[in-house]
Amino acid sequence: MHRYRSHTCGQLTAEDAGSVARLSGWVHRVRDHGGVLFIDLRDHYGMTQVVADPDSPAFKMAEKVRAEWVVRIDGKVRLRPAGTENAELSTGMIEMFATEIEVLGEAKELPMPVFGDIEYPEEIRLKYRFLDLRREKLHQNIMTRVKVIESMRRRMKEQGFNEFQTPILTASSPEGARDFLVPSRIHPGTFYALPQAPQQYKQLLMMAGFDRYFQIAPCFRDEDPRADRLPGEFYQLDIEMSFVEQDDVFAAMEPVIRGVFEEFANGKPVTPSPWPRIPYADSMRKYGSDKPDLRNPIVMQNVSEHFRGSGFKVFARMLEEPGNEVWAIPAPSGGSRAFCDRMNGWAQSEGQPGLGYIFWREENGTEEAAGPIAKNIGPERAAAIRDQLGLKTGDAAFFVAGNPDKFVKFAGAARTKVGVDLNLVDTERYEFAWIVDFPMFEWNEDDKKVDFSHNPFSMPQGGLDALMSQDPLTIKAFQYDVACNGFELASGGIRNHKPEAMVKAFEIAGYGEETVIERFGGMYRAFQYGAPPHGGMAAGVDRIVMLLCGAQNLREVALFPMNQQALDLLMGAPSPATNKQLRELSLKVNT
């Protein structure tokens, strides 16, 4: 028999009854039932119930073992007594009567519980992550991640993509976040950068003629952490294709992402193909977000005309200013003063002066519009708003006014708040959409200049002619995102593969040709020697797994994450360098 086990802890079944087996694993818990000890023995594969009574030669050792000790147990497999079977376990029909127990590794008093999924301080969980990962839910999440990545690889290869590995030490590149810099010992005073994404390399692979690339790519960005973004590093399914237009990328990637979700959604509905395509401008106007949660049925509308010249002077005066609008956020079933007042209070907690509203109720057998706004605009205008929004008695509408560029984010948050609080969001489904037609450029108010709004390497719609003749802020790009349940899951674009168009796009953003050659010399040179039209995208592996696991935080689907302060509490990183290391790198710390 093998030194440690003949079976795993998830393998024995009723067919093994009467045989002798050897198991090794962790003591999940010990239960004393009137002098008979029950040990739940756990390993990666499952759990087996082990029994030791006073007649067992292993009883004295069974009395000594404690939770999370690693032990080897020999024993005889037998059927559980009738009525004690556990259908939730793969081994639930049997138990093992212990004849010998060997302690392979004792455990000190645990700093956190492993049994159950009790909430525990994050600082302890991350410092003792190896214990945290033993917990059933987190262990399952990590294995789901493994299987999702396996599924991605299989589906990409079925689509004719080849997997390549691109360099980790590379040159600094403005991808929209700070680089992690790595000092060079051989070339003092110079630095490598960890890649924010394999963007340039995957485009160079297209220049080299490889046609279809993919990679489960590690990406490194020195940016502030948040719930849907891991500090420091993350992984993405990165792809690139040659001789394609936008529709070709959609046709290749939609089955991959949809297929992964259908495989791991546990029966939850997934948006069938073809996914909706929502222009960026429409997404912002309807949902107040470029990653809308389409499970929420609320669609915002422009109701400016109903307030223009009305008795509600606050909005009427705002509408006299060019560019100002009034948007309505419908609230089906929200037609009570209590709910409207709660929303108004929420808006004030968000730093807003308040949130105007109208709600429709039945009073003395007739419908009436209620609330301060309704009193000021009169019944005819209130009825026109209700009709435009498709509302009825028992419903409400909330209003935001001013310059949409300034209030759109708040309006989107209010839409989400209304949908969640009124239980309008169907949480048992995955709703996908392509967000398309992103603006190529945006106005950077801080620097008072035009800047790239998304990926600087994307092809502008209209090509070089648009860059030469259009107002930059009106140019749309062949850029697209995949939105699912309020998250951006993927982002990509058709690339600007003509050198003169690339130079012009960067000039508009304030970079001269010399800067382009200096910062993107490899790609700029490659464009001079026959560049195919190409495009691609990248999908966030961590976010996909988070959604599929029903987790609320990316740290619940990553093996060894940092905390919110970008500290690795397990390994103690970052840590000071020794004086010897600094001298070798020609560095001095300036604190």
Describe this structure in a few short sentences.
Helices cover 30% and strands 25% of the residues. The protein contains 18 helices and 22 strands. By secondary structure, the protein is α+β, with helices and mostly antiparallel strands.
| Number of helical stretches of at least 4 residues | 18
Query: Assembly type of the shown chains?
Result: single chain
Shape: globular
Distance between the termini: 61 Å
Show unreliable segments.
none
Radius of gyration: 30 Å
Side by side, the strands of the main sheet go 6-9-10-22-21-20-17-11
Helix content bin = 25-40%
Structural class: alpha+beta
Largest sheet: 8 strands, mixed
Query: Quick check: average pLDDT?
Result: 94
Share of β-strand residues? 15-25%
Number of strands: 22
Provide an overview of this structure.
The structure is a single chain. This protein is α+β, with helices and mostly antiparallel strands. It is 30% helix and 25% strand. It has 18 helices and 22 strands. It has helices at residues 59-64, 122-127, 129-132, 136-158, 199-207, 246-264, 280-287, 304-307, 313-318, 337-349, 372-389, 404-421, 463-469, 499-508, 513-519, 521-527, 541-549, 579-584, and strands spanning 20-33, 36-43, 46-52, 70-79, 94-105, 162-163, 181-183, 191-193, 212-221, 232-242, 277-279, 301-302, 325-331, 356-363, 366-370, 396-402, 432-436, 441-444, 449-452, 479-484, 487-494, 534-540. The strands form five sheets. The protein has an eight-stranded mixed beta sheet with strand order 6-9-10-22-21-20-17-11, sandwiched between helices. A five-stranded mixed β-barrel has the order 1-2-3-5-4. A five-stranded antiparallel beta sheet has the order 12-13-16-14-15. Strand 18 (441-444) and strand 19 form a beta hairpin. The model has no long low-confidence stretch (mean pLDDT 94).
